[in-house]
Structures are given as C-alpha cells and as structure tokens.
Write a structure and sequence with these properties.
Number of helices: 6
Structural class: alpha+beta
Oligomer: single chain
Strand content: 15-25%
Number of strands: 10
Distance between the termini: 21 Å
Strand order of the largest sheet: 1-2-7-8
Largest sheet: 4 strands, mixed
Radius of gyration: 18 Å
Amino acid sequence: MTIFEITGSAKFKHFKLQQNHSQYAYSTCIIQNTIHSSDWKQPLHQIIQFFICYNVKLGDFITRFYSYWDYQQAWFNAFFLQNNKGSHSWLFYFNNLIKTSNLPNWFLQWWDYFGCIYEVIKPHPLIENSYIYFKQKFKPSENEKKFPPILMFCFKLFVPWIYSWYFNYNTQHGLSHHH
C-alpha cells in the first residue's frame, strides 16, 4: 500500500468494528490514479528508492525499492488483507478527478478480479436502470473500448462497490475462494 501512497494512486482507510478490536473489519480504497507504463518517469525495470519514512517491513527484512513491475503487482496483492475471521471486505470507488484516457491494459485483469459485477447491481432497479441507460448513451474513446461498460459506468459515475470474499472448504475439491 506504500507504493500507492508514494505514487498518489490510491488512498486507504481501515476500520474496526469496535475500538477495542485488534483487526480491521473493512477498508475503503479511493482509486486516485492508475499509472500507465508510458507515464512512468523512469525505465520500467529501474528501481526507485523509497524515502526513509516509507520503509516497509516485510517479515524480517525491510524493502526500500520498487519498480513499475512492483507497482503493477501491488494492485493485485494489496487487497488480500484479511482478518482472523476471514470476513474483511473492501469498499472501492474512483476519485472524481480520475481520467480514463490512459488506463493501462493490465487494469482490466485487476477489474476482472476485484471490480463490480452486473449481478451486484441487478437487484437495485435505480442503479440497474442507470447502468442500462449509460450503456446505451456512452460513447467510449478508443482506449475506453478495451474495457467493459460496467467498469466505465463505475469509473465515470463514481459508483462504489463492495468486494468481499470467503473461503469454502470442500473435502472432495480442496480449498477455493469466492468473491
């Protein structure tokens, strides 16, 4: 999450159900920006050093460096925060100043895993009707055509969504996760 803070890509808040709890029950993520590889200020493989105040302790070592690859991977790894009850959830939404003109292609893979799905909005007629209207009227740019309408709907209209997951253990098929 430090990479997001350094790059201005996301802001987080974490919440406990009660003040005396030691673990987070849910978190919010405001997506501020997604940096395209063409907008990265250094060569993609070049490592960047954190400022001292941003040192991140991972297990027994402290990392002080990141690259574009680390930035991209942070989008896929940062949201697996979980409490000991396995009930942590995320509230995601886009900042109203974010632009879709240079959304990286890899963000589609992130969206496929963490993004809003139609089944979530379908039981809510006001949101569903807004989405249907949006799909009929929205004229995507060339870059936006690569992304599903529901992503553009959430992006352009700042529609929040909740991501939660749970584990289901089946003795025949092993452990699986759902969201």
